[in-house]
UniProtKB/TrEMBL annotation:
SUPFAM superfamilies: Porins. Keywords: Cell outer membrane, Membrane, Signal. It comes from Shewanella japonica. Residues 1-21 form the signal peptide. InterPro entries: Beta-barrel_TonB_sf, Decahaem-assoc_OM_MtrB/PioB. NCBIfam families: OMP_MtrB_PioB. This is MtrB/PioB family decaheme-associated outer membrane protein.
Length: 662
């Protein structure tokens, strides 16, 4: 078995470092509208010995499409078993251990073991198996072994990828300092869809086999009103597959190169009376020095790629009085590409043009400045407002500089009985330097085209959140959003985009034994774009409509058979569609995408005793999608596809779970 390190934990360690920018001290918590009678301390008593639960599950799955494994956790058909649990041990000296597991035996499962002494040290190890399934009946006319792709009769294979992770870490605390270290490894295997042109378009299933190792270490010091941390993060990616070749031509598809990355971070926080300041400074380097595919006229053996990164941020928040709070932040990011630059002879299709051009090492620099204020108008009324400024500079780009200014305001109301209301509105405007086609793109792109992430844009948005408790047994949450983007200066490209949605949630505790919930949400995204087939002014237009809907409901009824039996049901429906209308000489549909999913489960939970219980669960999934872009392998002459990868299936799962409480 190949083991891989858990990159998620390492990423979280890096991502959570700037959390010091906010003050989460208990003394600053807003408890104004908190009904404390509904809460009790569940960890105020120290439990010695063993506690927790163990769950053993066995059942049966009936499915004819591997895609159902994304919902059921395993692609096994027929009888399946799994093990889950959460067991904890603690003694009178503070030594403790914990073992957690979820669905061991399935293709999506996790496990964690940790031991240590409370408040002093802890050592943990974890394992995770994560599998995603795309299709079980992909087709290919290319069979390859050891990097050689050979035309063959069509055969069927599975498009899926599996990540197996293993990690081990330790942390130590003593008085005012602490330290931690962690090592993770991840093996990724399976197949993904890829394509090449030789000489026509060929789609094939590319084998995935890679290993990523990462290492994290750090130390922190804490004072009465300050703290600081120094940390290091490094990762190394190794691709275990080679370049792909055809019988008539070698190295037609380059393998993903090996690479590595390193980061050193220094962060800290300081509190002065009612003012909190925090900051972080990070330097990093990414290296890619793998061998290049050798072609005639190219003497370069390897790429010698190197990118240096610098990130920094500073945040400050100050309570000037009981009504007014001011805050601000500055974020800086610089990506400097120091890779080698070479002259390459240019190719025009299969012939040499005779000209030489250099590869371009692009740099990007970002700066973001934010200021905000929060003012309590009266009891239960708070007004917040802010201004954001973002500057981006890119080298060798159609537009080297862009800047975006944003204004926003938010009104929070807590003064109305059984209501909480938040209304937020914002306006932003993006501009920048002169937009012009560069030497790199002038021969390929229309000079009137504007890329959406570089073009001038004006955005207006508004959001409303309302929570209401009209009755003791009923709560309602409603959210509505609307945003519109205008690209007024764009002649060819994205000219307009509109995004609006709503979400509503209902929670009901009808009786002590009977509870229910329901939710609904919809989103609409409409966009318009203009294009030119004649490489001049616009001569065709497209209008795209994307729609999404999610509906769900559930009930739970207990108290049956002398409070031993609980019955419940859950239902979820989701639907998405995308329609494109093209106007040239007339208006016609461009081809659509449509999918829907019905998921339902019924369960019965019976308490055999105070320590043991049985739970019987039936789950059902109905999934359907259709994509107009999917084609059979030889539907278009000269093009080889992976076949129609649409799904249309019904899947069933029945599970019996036995749980034991220690």
């Amino acid at each position: 078995m190949n083991f891989k390190l858990n990159l998620i934990t390492a990423s979280l360690l890096m991502a959570t470092a700037p959390a010091w920018a906010a003050d989460f001290a208990v003394g600053n918590a807003n408890t104004e509208n908190l009904n404390q009678e509904k809460y009790q301390c569940k960890r105020c008593t120290s439990t010695q010995g063993y506690s927790g639960n163990v769950n053993v599950s066995a059942g049966y799955i009936d499915s004819d499409d591997v895609h159902a494994a994304n919902a059921f956790g395993t692609d096994q058909d027929g009888v399946v078993t799994s093990l889950s649990g959460d067991i904890e041990y603690q003694d009178e000296h503070g030594y403790q251990a914990r073992v957690q597991a979820h669905q061991l035996g399935f293709e999506n499962s996790t496990a964690n073991i940790s031991v240590g002494q409370k408040g002093l040290f802890n050592v943990d190890a974890d394992y995770a198996l994560i599998t995603t399934y795309q299709s079980g009946d992909a087709q290919s006319n290319l069979y390859y072994d050891d990097g050689m792709m050979t035309p063959d009769v069509p055969y069927v294979f599975e498009l899926s990828q599996q990540r197996e992770k293993v990690g081990i870490g330790a942390d130590f605390k003593q008085d005012f300092y602490q330290a931690y270290v962690r090592f993770d490894s991840e093996d990724k295997t399976g197949y993904k869809s890829s394509s090449l042109v030789s000489p026509g378009p060929i789609n094939f299933g590319q084998r995935v086999d890679s290993t990523t190792d990462s290492f994290t270490a750090g130390a922190a010091l804490t004072g009465d009103n300050w703290l600081t941390e120094l940390s290091y993060f490094g990762s190394q990616y190794k691709n275990n597959t080679d370049n792909l070749s055809l019988p008539t031509e070698y190295d037609v598809y380059a393998a993903t190169p090996d690479n590595q990355a390193h980061q050193v971070s220094l962060s800290g926080q300081y509190q002065l009376d009612r003012t909190v300041m925090s900051g972080r400074f990070i330097v990093g380097r990414m290296i890619q020095d793998d061998d290049l595919i050798q072609v005639a006229g190219n003497p370069i053996q390897n790429w010698d790629g190197e990118v240096d990164t610098t990130d920094a941020n500073f945040r400050i928040t100050s309570m000037l009085n009981n009504r007014l709070r001011l805050g601000g932040s500055y974020d800086y990011s610089n990506r400097e590409n120091n890779s080698s630059v070479f002259e390459f002879q240019q190719y025009n299709f299969d012939s040499v043009s005779g000209t030489f051009k250099e590869n371009v090492a692009t740099d990007i620099e970002r700066s973001t400045f934010k200021v905000n204020a929060s003012y309590r108008i009266a009891s239960g009324y708070r007004l917040q407002a802010g201004y954001d400024r973002k500057d981006i500079e890119r080298t060798y780009s159609e537009r080297e500089q862009t800047n975006e200014d944003s204004l926003w305001a938010k009104l929070s109301i807590r003064a109305i009985d059984n209501f909480t209301i938040d209304l937020k509105a914002g306006h932003s405007n993006r501009g920048g330097s002169e937009y012009q086609a560069t030497e790199l793109t002038s021969s390929e792109e229309n000079s009137l085209m504007r890329k959406y992430y570089l073009a001038d844009r004006e955005r207006n948005e508004v959001e409303l959140r309302v929570s209401h408790t009209p009755l003791d047994w009923l709560s309602i949450d409603l959210t509505g959003r609307y945003a519109k983007d205008d690209y007024d200066d764009t002649v060819i490209g994205l000219t307009e985009s509109e995004d609006y949605s709503y979400d509503i949630n209902l929670n009901m505790q009808l009786t002590k034994q009977f509870s229910a919930y329901g939710f609904a949400g919809q989103q609409w995204i409409n966009s318009a774009q203009a294009g030119s087939q004649s490489y001049s002014s616009p001569d065709w237009y497209a209008y795209i409509e994307d729609k999404f809907i999610n509906l769900g409901a559930g009930v739970s009824y207990g108290g049956l058979m002398e409070d031993k039996l609980t019955l419940g049901a859950d239902y979820l429906f989701s639907n998405s569609s995308s329609d494109t209308y093209v106007t040239a000489d007339g208006t016609s549909p461009y081809g659509d995408y449509y999918s829907y999913n019905h998921s339902a489960s019924l369960y019965a939970n019976y308490a055999l005793s105070d320590d043991m219980a049985l739970k019987l669960t039936y789950s059902y999934e109905r999934y359907y999608d259709t994509d107009d872009a999917q084609m059979t392998p030889d539907q278009v002459p000269g093009m080889v596809t992976l076949g129609e990868l649409n799904h249309n299936y019904n899947a069933h799962q029945i599970m019996l779970n036995f749980s034991y409480v220690l």
